[in-house]
Write a structure and sequence with these properties.
The chain is built from 13 helices and 16 strands. The chain is an alpha/beta fold. The strands form 3 sheets. Strands 8-14-9-10-11-12-13 form a 7-stranded mixed sheet. The protein has a 6-stranded mixed sheet with strand order 3-2-1-7-16-15, covered by helices on one side. A 3-stranded antiparallel sheet has the order 4-5-6. The radius of gyration is 22 Å and the shape is globular.
Length: 450
């Protein structure tokens, strides 16, 4: 093993794990160091949940980890006992088991020392000649021919209208995915900032009899439900502005069949996004993105029924508007908010506030120490749309000088500015395979040697 170059992967969630699996599949490939600061390798935040109400948002048939083996996950399920499907959707915990089985199998089939699991935090990355130096929190340094950032979903920035006393209080939950995040049993009224998939998860997880959730976002849109798979309309690869794409979707959605039209558009999304100008992307993000998100990223039908029941019973109240003030008081949090289209504000008292605002985009607001360090070094820069880090077509990170960094890659949500749809399994699995192949080609050609 000592003669092989090393590739360091920062983050062992889905995107990092898949990249590692593709690298180790090549028997002549590099040593892979999979570095994870949490206690669990392979699951990430999304698949570490054991809540039976947390279902995948994609049907089983499209959840294989390998793009060239679409039935891999279904075969794994066929050989496993003790799971059940809800209309073609399984729990995220079961999918986490699948990922950990993939990791275990990779460790067992790899030669000793090929795949190393490093339980530590990466605090810095810097150039070391043609290679990279990765510094870990416990003081060790790793020299690597290539580094892959697989950081997953970044925690959203705190609300600007909240004071430091509230943000430091147990009445504010900054990360609903934190396993230590919990609410006092006595809290009856809860504000959820955001109305997307994270809000749904928080409401389902933290519900109890007598508790009411108030969910607020600018438009008050809630994710739609999947429907049974049926005949699909045919959509040719569309071109044009965001408005023209919207017209194409509407034309292909007779009799309310928008779900099939959106799904058929999916293979073309990257090409469409990359064909738009900066002005067109900004227009989409400002005006159409909320509608795209709730129609594209849908709920399993059983979860949608649960949410509808909560809303009918006013245990979940969704409103469109703007939060103007969050003030910590002796008995709770005072929320001032202005309904969409109104001039006057309304007052609401809650016992806790949970930030469910979704993916953080602007790196200048990132609380992740490693990203801040890389920004200060000029090794990365925000993408023009402020959705994440700037990368080229091969997922190489672009530094402040404007050029791609040889041997420094990113996979997953951090690359949304270049690819847009890169947050779910079907999209990330292809990117991880492509990045791994690019690294292997470079190493074999001697372009990057540790």
């Amino acid at each position: 093993m000592s003669n092989r170059p090393t590739v360091a992967i920062v983050g062992a969630g889905f995107s990092g794990l898949l990249t590692a699996l593709h690298l180790t599949a090549d028997p002549e490939g590099p040593i892979v160091r999979l570095i994870e600061r949490s206690v669990s390798f392979g699951r990430g935040a999304a698949y570490a949940t054991a809540n039976p109400d947390h279902l995948l948002n994609v049907r089983v048939a499209n959840m294989s980890a390998y793009p060239d083996d679409p039935e891999h996950f279904t075969r794994w399920l066929a050989g496993r006992e003790g799971w059940s499907a809800h209309g073609g959707f399984v729990t995220r915990g079961v999918y986490g088991d699948y990922l950990q089985d993939l990791l275990k199998a990779a460790v067992e089939r790899s030669a000793a020392g090929r795949l190393l699991l490093e339980g530590d935090e990466v605090v810095d990355i810097s150039r070391a000649g043609p290679a990279w130096k990765v510094r870990l929190g416990m003081g060790r340094e790793i020299k690597a021919a290539a580094v892959v950032l697989a950081l997953g979903v970044l925690r959203p920035a705190p609300p600007a209208v909240a004071g430091p006393d509230l943000l430091a209080s147990p009445r504010y939950v900054a990360d609903p995915w934190n396993p230590r995040a919990a609410l006092d049993r006595e809290i009856d009224e809860v504000l959820l900032i955001g109305t997307g998939l994270t809000m749904i998860d928080a409401a389902v997880t933290l519900w109890r009899p007598g508790r009411r959730f108030w969910a607020l976002s600018r438009r008050g849109l809630v994710p739609r439900s999947h429907a049974p798979v049926g005949p699909r309309p045919e959509i040719e690869a569309p071109r044009g502005s965001p408005v023209e794409i919207l017209r194409t979707l509407r034309a292909a959605s007779p009799d309310g069949r928008w779900r099939e039209a959106v799904d058929d558009l999916r293979p073309h999304v990257r090409t469409i996004w990359q064909g738009w100008s900066g002005v067109e992307r900004a227009a989409f993000l400002r005006h159409l993105r909320p509608w795209w998100d709730v129609h594209r990223h849908r709920l399993a039908p059983s979860v949608a029924r649960r949410v509808a029941m909560l809303m009918r019973g006013r245990e979940l109240v969704v409103r469109a508007g703007e939060i103007t003030s969050l003030t910590l008081g002796r008995e709770g949090v005072e929320v001032l908010w202005r309904p969409r289209g109104a001039r006057l504000t309304r007052r609401l008292w809650v016992g806790a506030v949970i930030n469910c605002a979704g993916l953080l985009g602007d790196l200048d607001q990132a609380s992740e120490p490693l990203l801040r360090q890389l920004l200060s070094r000029g090794l990365i820069r925000p993408d023009p749309s402020r959705l994440g880090a700037d990368v080229d077509a091969g997922s190489r990170l672009i530094g402040s000088g404007g050029g791609p960094q040889a041997g420094l890659y990113a996979v997953g949500p951090l690359t949304r500015g270049a690819f847009w749809e890169i947050t779910s399994v079907p999209d990330i699995r292809s990117q991880a395979a492509d990045v791994a192949q690019a690294i292997l080609r470079g190493l074999k050609l001697g372009l990057a040697v540790a």
